[in-house]
Amino acid sequence: MIRFGIAGIPLTSKGRTYVESVEDAHLLGMNALEVQLLRVNVEERPAAEYSGLRPVDVDSSIIVDILRQDKNGNYKSAGIDTVIEEADIVQELFWNMARNYDELKEGGDLADELDVQLSMHAPYYMDMLSDQDIAVKSYNHLKWTLIIGRAMRAKRVVTHTGFYNGSKKDSLERSVKIYRAMSNECKPENGFPYIGVETSGKTEIFGTTAELIQLAKRVKSIEPILNFPHVHSITGGSLIEVSNFEALISEFSKYAKSDLYTEFAGVEYEDHNELKLDAIKHGTLKFETLAEALLNYESDMTIISSSPLLEHDAQYMNIIYLRALSRKFAKKGSGKKTVA
User: Phi/psi of residue 45, each to 5°?
Assistant: First the structure.
């Protein structure tokens, strides 16, 4: 099965909430939605007013961690699967798309009912390899996205890693340690989404195809995410022939968590760096060629439109794929011999 979806709220959506986005995606004929964790604010505050409650019971915010004093007086994470005590400190996340855990569950229930596969994208600016405080902030943003993703029953959380720090080899080693720690903290077997690490579209950012494959080999719960315009940009426009797409799909499929998760858009690039994403009709990256490559692909795939035209291009990609499929079946039918 090939699923088509979008990254973010549909452009034609009148509502701006997570639940409304799920419904609108379905009404637009899509069966996948990548929810984006944007415009969030996290505050730490005394937990006295929530004492005796669990985070899922709080209706005014999404509590993403409970900090509790140990015997030495140091505040440590107690997780969110516990009852809040009066002396605790809570980390509250305020998000414009959902107010509390009830709304996250509601959206997940609706997605199941409508057969809309959910994923999430962590904040786009991530710098987890840095030696500065931004690395801790980026790590926490990924953790919070995984917590929210679990509540809405998203299958995966997609993230960028950030800028190289030192050599590429050193950056890979650091990435392995970071993602291994996060995978141990937020294990898929405990209901958390898989961590999907996205290919990079810029030469100064970690995430070449080779790096992601090495990362997936060494951290088994990591899924490499195939962003076609990013790969096309960083390789100087390598995705031209059907065989180019087939080779790339074959490599990433080895590490996919059931369906192969991909993103597509038109793209402008220069000197092996992405300049901007564009409508799929523009540029040298052609969905028509990818559609031909998919005709012999026998596993499940999700294709997310990251085009500026979002749902328009998701629908258009679906049409192009169905046309290619129809031509394939027509050729098979015309090749059959008639029996007198």
Answer: -155, 155
Question: Is residue 281 a contact partner of residue 309, using CB atoms and an 8 Å limit?
Answer: no
Q: Please give the model's pTM, rounded to 2 decimal places.
A: 0.94
Neighbours of 9 (CB within 10 A): 22
Q: Is the pLDDT of residue 337 over 60?
A: no
Q: Has residue 336 got a pLDDT over 90?
A: no
> What CA–CA distance (Å, rounded) separates 168 from 211?
9
Q: At 320, list the tokens.
A: 């192009």
Q: What's the angle, vertex CA 107, arms to CA 106 and CA 108, rounded to 5?
A: 90
The residues facing 269 across adjacent strands are 274
- Could you give the CA distance from residue 143 to residue 186 in angstroms, rounded to a whole number? 8
Domain boundaries, the chain: 2-39+99-331, 40-95
Contact (Cβ atoms closer than 8 angstroms) between residue 129 and residue 163: yes
pLDDT band for 15, please (50, 70, 90 cuts): confident
Helix (H) or strand (E) holding 245: helix 242-253
Q: Is residue 335 predicted with pLDDT exceeding 60?
A: yes
Contact 199, 225 (CB under 8 A): yes
The two most distant CA atoms of the chain are separated, in Å, by 91
How many angstroms separate the CA atoms of 231 and 152, rounded?
A: 30
Q: What is the CATH number of domain 2-39+99-331?
A: 3.20.20.150
Q: Sign of the CA dihedral 214, 218, 220, 222?
A: negative
Task: Count the helix, strand and coil residues of the chain and give each as a percent rounded to the nearest 5.
Answer: 40, 25, 35
Measure the CA–CA gap between 245 and 292, rounded to whole angstroms.
9
Say what angle helices 287-294 and 242-253 make with each other, to 10 degrees: 60
Tens of pLDDT along 206-237? 999 999 999 999 999 999 999 999 999 999 99
Q: Which amino acid is at 193?
A: P
Alpha carbon distance 269, 309 (integer Å): 18
Nearest Cα neighbor of 92 from 43, 58, 135 is 43
Which helix (H) or strand (E) segment is 34 a member of?
strand 32-36
Residue holding tokens 């996250």? 104
